[in-house]
Structure prediction request, 93 residues.
Amino acid sequence: MTDETAPKFVMISMFRRRTADGFMLAAFVIDERECDSAAEMKSIRNEALTEIQRRRIVGEFETRRAKAGELPSNLPRWAEYKRQLEAEDQESS
Prediction:
């Protein structure tokens, strides 16, 4: 039996960071399935974008529609990536 009320598609935003040698590497992901609502996903994305701009990190977001049953990414989530940035700040101080 399938749940006809479950969404068939979800939104996934991936941030790619430009490395010193010019390559674009996937850094973190925001997955709508891990949010309580589309509004929460947008809020997390806006928070991430604000922090990335503040830190002058060069990169880009790619937001795409994915099937709801698609396996989740193994990339860090924004909260985890933000902790990594903060840890790097502590090490460089």
Observations:
- Residues 38-54 form the longest helix (17 residues).
- The CA atoms of residues 9 and 67 lie 4 Å apart.
